[in-house]
Design a protein that fits this description.
113 residues; mainly alpha; Four Helix Bundle (Hemerythrin (Met), subunit A); single chain; 59% helix; 4 helices
Length: 113
Amino acid sequence: MDIVAAVLCAAGLVLAIWARRAIGSNWSAIVTLKRGHELVTGGPYRYVRHPIYSAILVMFFATALAAGRLGGFVGFASFWIKLRQEEALLMRHFPNDYAAYRTRVKALVPFVI
């Protein structure tokens, strides 16, 4: 089980790095728009709208699997709140493009949620 958890954690880390590189200068630790902000829909954003959060979710799951406890998912609630804030901001700034993006790309898990 530890090997599966390690592989999942590594996969989550790779996804997070890929997503961070894809979003480039649009990334911010706080929910804000940057000057010249663009709607990024390429790279991992082609599959999920919030791939960094998806990566963190995978790493939480890997940690919970290794530890044998699901309590680590409690912290994910803060990411869900931030996700909703980001979505509202992007809908205001890119009303047509983001609405279309939301209809074709799931938030966290491809084809599911």
